[in-house]
């Protein structure tokens, strides 16, 4: 309320007591509920904004953290593996409308393959596009139980029936429409015209061939807008599984699926699927930001 | 507490100048420090037009607002105007680790206010052609180039300032087989990106850029970009 009552006594007239009192009382009413009309344009700068007001009102960036994981790990195939667990020093609160911006990266040094036959390796790489998939899970209860992040499937469930291997067993998979936090890293590979071991490139010392002959870093950034209820994130977990390949959703959605190739899908050689393959992650970095909608 | 006039006037009584003056003095006192939080309406009283307008400095490509500061830099020209990392300047031979500036990738940003956090995102693309002087690597010490990000609080005036890059933002570029970049034009063009966040930084000058070290004749960095964000509130 910004308007003030006005009263102007005319010359020669008696001053009205009630009008005079109304003048001063009106100022009292107006100053009891100062609002936007009382604020001058462009008058609010940092000095007028409390850095930590109640409920973080006015704070654009409500949370910022960076975690570095320096321990090396070598997850093997055949199951979903934990690459690293990041426990946040301060829990990260996501209110409805808040936007979580997450950046994470991995440095991958080595890949080991159990496939020793060059022709099999070439087929594995060229036909199903073998690779490793990394994704995140979160602990939003503080109990150390990690669950799926909205928009990100895990291999814990099979979403479609009829997605089977050659033996008729159901295959765990991730829908490619639900890969908010995912990174896919190619498995050991060979040059297209490779005809000998020497023509191939290596990571490390195990297995035939490699995507690249030096350690590589891969980065992923995504954002997630919270809806519904407030969630408090206590930790994040980087997961890995391989060897996977990409296939078409048999349910007819037109989307793709990331399959786990635990079993021999593309050949009869029991080692063909790379059941004993592994990958080494040197280190990891996770950056979290939470910014208010307004 | 809102303004309360100390005096009220009664009908048919002479108005006393002193009482009027007292009311006005009280009003003056209220306006000069008498406003308390309870006097503010519970409705939104600070709207967009009330916030100081952001300012943009074209020379440094820096936007400064109440909520924070952002800046960008980059170069998108193709290989004809590449910058580089090479062994001639990094004097690197196997385990010798001397980081050198990657020319043209440096950015200075002055933070006018102490932000809560500073986030830098960067990306670059490069090629590392081989030549007859490079032996094929078969063990540790593969020929190649490392590129990393440096965030230095202050102005970089000596290479000693850049010898501690963030190894979490390091990228290792592969040396290409000479055959791959021959007639078929299959040069590998690595695209790399990374990020780094620093909390609790002061209102100071930051130098941010790429450094490299190489065992190769020449790694061509043919595009790069950096985006810097900091938040005051």
Q: Could you characterize what this model shows?
A:
- The complex is a heterodimer of chains A (294) and B (233).
- With 294 residues, chain A is mainly β.
- Chain A has helices spanning 17-30, 118-126; strands at 61-69, 81-94, 99-112, 131-139, 147-148, 173-175, 183-186, 216-225, 231-248, 256-260, 278-291.
- Helices cover 8% and strands 35% of the residues of chain A.
- Chain B contains 2 helices and 12 strands.
- Chain B has helices at residues 17-34, 87-90; strands spanning 55-57, 62-65, 68-75, 83-85, 100-101, 107-110, 117-127, 144-153, 166-174, 190-199, 205-214, 219-231.
- Chain B starts with 16 loop residues before the first helix and ends with a strand.
- Chains A and B meet through helix 1, strand 1, strand 3, strand 8 and strand 11 of A and helix 1, strand 7, strand 9 and strand 10 of B.
Concise summary:
The complex is a heterodimer of chains A (294) and B (233). Chain A has 294 residues and is mainly beta.
Q: Which fold name is given in CATH as the topology of the largest domain in chain B?
A: Jelly Rolls
Number of strands of chain B: 12
Radius of gyration of chain A: 30 Å
Give the proportion of residues in helices of chain A: under 10%
Question: In angstroms, what is the radius of gyration of chain B?
Answer: 30 Å
Separation of the first and last Cα atoms of chain A:
24 Å
Q: Mean pLDDT across all residues of chain A, rounded?
A: 78
Proportion in β-strands of chain B: 35-45%
Major sheet of chain B, described briefly? 7 strands, antiparallel
Mean pLDDT of chain B: 81
Key descriptive features of the protein:
heterodimer, A: 294 residues, mainly beta, 2 domains, 7-stranded antiparallel β-sheet, 4-stranded antiparallel β-sheet, B: Jelly Rolls, 5-stranded antiparallel β-sheet, rod-shaped
Show the helix and strand layout.
The complex is a heterodimer of chains A (294) and B (233).
Chain A: H1 17-30, E1 61-69, E2 81-94, E3 99-112, H2 118-126, E4 131-139, E5 147-148, E6 173-175, E7 183-186, E8 216-225, E9 231-248, E10 256-260, E11 278-291
Antiparallel strand pairs in A: 1-11, 2-9, 3-8, 3-11, 4-5, 4-7, 4-9, 6-10, 9-10
Chain B: H1 17-34, E1 55-57, E2 62-65, E3 68-75, E4 83-85, H2 87-90, E5 100-101, E6 107-110, E7 117-127, E8 144-153, E9 166-174, E10 190-199, E11 205-214, E12 219-231
Antiparallel strand pairs in B: 1-2, 2-3, 3-12, 4-12, 5-11, 6-11, 7-10, 7-12, 8-9, 8-11
């Amino acid at each position: 309320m910004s308007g003030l009552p006005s009263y102007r006594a005319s010359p020669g007239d008696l001053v009205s007591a009630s009008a005079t009192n109304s003048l001063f009382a009106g100022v009292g009413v107006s100053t009891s509920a100062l609002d936007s009309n009382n604020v001058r344009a462009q008058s609010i700068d940092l000095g007028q904004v409390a850095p930590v007001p109640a409920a973080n009102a006015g704070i654009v960036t409500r949370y910022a953290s960076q975690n570095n994981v320096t321990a090396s790990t070598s997850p093997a195939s055949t199951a979903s593996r934990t690459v690293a667990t990041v426990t946040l020093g301060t829990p990260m609160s996501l209110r409805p409308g808040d936007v979580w911006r997450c950046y994470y990266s991995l440095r991958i040094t080595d890949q080991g393959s159990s496939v020793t036959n060059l022709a099999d390796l070439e087929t594995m790489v060229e036909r199903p596009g073998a690779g490793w998939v990394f994704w995140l899970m979160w602990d939003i209860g503080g109990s150390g139980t990690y669950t799926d992040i909205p928009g990100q499937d895990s291999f814990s469930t099979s979403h479609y029936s009829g997605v089977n291997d050659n033996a008729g067993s159901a295959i765990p998979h991730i829908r490619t429409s639900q890969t908010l936090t995912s990174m896919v890293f190619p498995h050991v590979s060979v040059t297209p015209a490779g005809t000998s071991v020497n023509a191939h490139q290596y990571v490390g010392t195990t297995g035939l061939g490699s995507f690249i002959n030096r350690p590589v870093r891969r980065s992923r950034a995504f954002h997630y807008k919270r809806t519904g209820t407030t969630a408090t994130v206590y930790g994040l977990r980087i997961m890995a599984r391989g060897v996977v390949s990409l296939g078409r959703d048999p349910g007819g959605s037109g989307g793709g699926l990331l399959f786990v190739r635990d079993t021999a899908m593309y050949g009869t050689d029991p080692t063909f699927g790379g059941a004993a393959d592994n990958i080494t992650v040197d280190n990891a970095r996770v950056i979290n930001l939470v910014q208010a909608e307004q | 507490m809102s303004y309360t006039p100390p005096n009220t006037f009664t009908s048919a009584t002479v108005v006393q100048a002193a009482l009027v003056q007292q009311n006005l003095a009280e009003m003056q006192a209220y306006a000069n420090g008498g406003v308390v939080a309870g006097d503010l309406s519970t409705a939104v009283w600070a709207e967009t037009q009330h916030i100081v307008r952001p300012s943009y400095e074209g020379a440094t490509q820096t936007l400064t607002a109440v909520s924070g500061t952002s800046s960008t830099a980059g170069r998108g020209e193709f290989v004809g105007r590449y910058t580089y990392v090479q062994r001639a300047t990094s004097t690197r031979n196997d385990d010798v680790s001397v980081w050198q500036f990657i020319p043209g990738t440096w950015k200075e940003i002055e933070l006018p206010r102490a932000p809560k956090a500073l986030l830098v995102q960067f990306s670059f693309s490069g090629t590392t052609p081989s030549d007859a002087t490079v032996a094929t690597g078969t063990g540790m010490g593969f020929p190649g180039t490392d590129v990393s990000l440096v965030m230095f609080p202050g102005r970089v005036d000596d290479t000693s300032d850049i010898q501690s890059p963030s190894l979490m933002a390091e990228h290792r570029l592969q040396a290409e087989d000479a055959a791959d970049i021959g007639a078929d034009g299959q040069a590998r063009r690595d695209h790399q990106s990374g990020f780094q966040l620093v909390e609790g930084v002061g209102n100071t000058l930051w130098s941010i850029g790429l450094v490299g070290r190489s065992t190769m004749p020449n790694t061509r960095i043919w595009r790069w970009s950096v985006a810097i964000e900091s938040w005051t509130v």
